[in-house]
Write a structure and sequence with these properties.
single chain, alpha/beta, 8-stranded mixed sheet, 4-stranded antiparallel sheet, 13 helices, 18 strands, about 30% helix, globular
């Protein structure tokens, strides 16, 4: 038997120590999955008529925030709060407005913060407002970047849809929205997942996962799926899932009396609906709901492919997964088809966080906000928490289901809202108030503001405080 000298033993020990040290100390990756117009209509969130097995599987092993609220009921400003951790402008060009400000005067975005701390940052699909993160007439102008300094790569495959603008409202096999009234509001074409743009986004996401997982550097990969955004288009095999499914009746389907943030569903009504009226024709309304559900199942299938690829690479053991809906969507509630109101249906969306190091899965009904995600990911990855974010970390929820939430603030251009565990309060820019009691059977159909002046004053002060810290930009957009 050959003896080993002490000096050689020390060398072998140090060699083994440093060989395993990088793997032990490597920071956790982040996989952020953004889904457009996704109300919390998932089986794991209580919608038993929906087929969403892949997202439900993520919720089962992660942590589901059942009372997550976005900060604005529209794609652009909601994504602004996600990606900056700050309250900001109410318009869809919020991030483009920010991009016009000098670098030294801008706080870092979430991907920029991770990039500055050693992460490779990649976006695929619709993560910021424009798929691919560029401006210009067709959203592919390299000189007009929606989020400067954020991404090492920001990608949007377009194939037969020609350009990112074409994919945003694209239907099967390269159909581009030229004139809205000529494009059908829903469609279910025969074919595989790749006949709609989300299939392309998913394929590119799989490619990026394969590439990023082979590198030593931790990654922050954001994937933005477009469906179930209008028009409701997805492969027919997903529509077939709902052939025999009974859909629940619409709650409070009437147009509200009195002053509210109700609107005429303009985004929805620009599409071809064959002369039918969704608020009067129950069969047509049901068909719309089926096609919306079809798009959820299509998006769910893409999520499944992405999570499966993550597992195949082995990176799942070191990757935090966040699934986020950018806002809700009315399916006839309050006689609205779309978002853009300050009612519950526009602002309530799903949020799921999976941390491979979390002690156990779980869920909570405590209220949280979208802009809480930025500080949460910093804590879960052991990055410094920036002092400029407005949100609160949710990391304690993953180890203690009894943590308390907080009120949620939201806004459109001419009104603001606060939501706590009992009330929704809406304050219009001229001072008119709406107050709804969610513990009553009337919910958001009975404005009780006049009868509760003390609550109106209390909520008004809370809104004034939030308004005072919102980002503002003096630009032309």
């Amino acid at each position: 038997m050959t003896s080993i000298k002490p000096a050689n033993l020390l060398f072998l020990f140090l060699l083994g120590f440093f060989a395993c040290k990088p793997e032990e100390e490597r920071a956790k990756n982040v996989l952020l999955i953004c889904i457009d117009d996704l109300r919390p209509e998932l089986k794991s969130f209580g919608a038993t008529h929906i087929s969403s097995p892949n997202i439900d599987g993520l919720a089962a092993k992660g942590f589901a925030f059942k009372s997550h609220y976005v900060n604005a009921p529209s794609c652009g400003p909601s994504r602004y709060t996600l990606l900056t951790g700050r309250y900001g402008p109410a318009g869809n060009y919020a991030l483009f407005q920010r991009s016009k400000v000098e670098d030294s005067l801008r706080y870092a975005t979430m991907p920029e913060w991770f990039r500055n701390h050693g992460y490779t940052t990649v976006s695929v699909g619709k993560v910021s407002h424009h798929p691919g993160g560029r401006g210009g007439d067709d959203w592919n102008d390299e000189s007009v970047i929606e989020m400067p300094n954020a991404w090492d790569k920001h990608l949007m495959p377009v194939a037969e849809w020609q350009h990112p603008r074409g994919t945003m409202h694209g239907l099967a096999n390269g159909e581009i929205r030229v004139k809205e009234s000529k494009m059908d509001v829903y469609q279910s074409a025969e074919g595989g997942d790749e006949i709609y743009p989300d299939g392309l986004i998913t394929e590119e996401a799989l490619n990026q996962l394969s590439e990023l997982s082979r590198k030593d550097q931790p990654f922050f990969l954001a994937v933005g799926l477009i469906k179930p955004h209008l028009p409701f288009g997805a492969p027919k095999k997903y529509y077939d899932l709902y052939e025999e499914v009974k859909f629940p009746e619409t709650k409070h389907p009437e147009k509200p009396e009195g002053r509210t943030t109700w609107h005429g569903s303009g985004e929805f009504r620009q599409y071809n609906m064959w002369g039918q009226e969704a608020n009067e024709d129950e069969d047509f309304a049901l068909e719309l709901k089926k096609h919306y559900a079809t798009c959820i199942s299509y998006a769910d299938a893409q999520v499944g492919k992405i999570l499966q690829k993550l597992k195949e690479t082995g990176a799942d053991k070191k990757t935090i997964v966040v699934l986020w809906g950018d806002h809700g969507w009315h399916l006839g509630e309050h006689a609205i088809w779309g978002k853009h109101s300050l009612f519950e249906e526009s602002l309530h969306s799903p949020l799921i966080i999976f941390d491979p190091e979390a002690q156990s899965p779980g869920e909570t009904a405590e209220i949280v906000e979208t802009l809480d995600i930025f500080p949460t990911l910093c804590e879960l990855t052991n990055l410094p928490k920036p002092d400029f974010v407005h949100g609160e970390s949710l990391s304690l929820f993953l180890s203690d289901k009894n943590v308390s939430g907080h009120s949620a603030y939201g806004y459109i251009s001419n009104a603001q809202t606060m939501r706590n565990d009992q009330y929704r309060f809406i304050l219009h820019e001229d001072g008119f108030a709406e107050l709804y009691d969610h513990l009553s059977s009337e919910g958001e159909t009975q404005n009780i503001a006049i009868a509760n002046p003390a609550l109106v004053e209390e909520f008004s002060k809370l809104i004034e405080n939030r308004l005072g810290i919102r980002d503002e930009y003096n630009t032309d957009e």
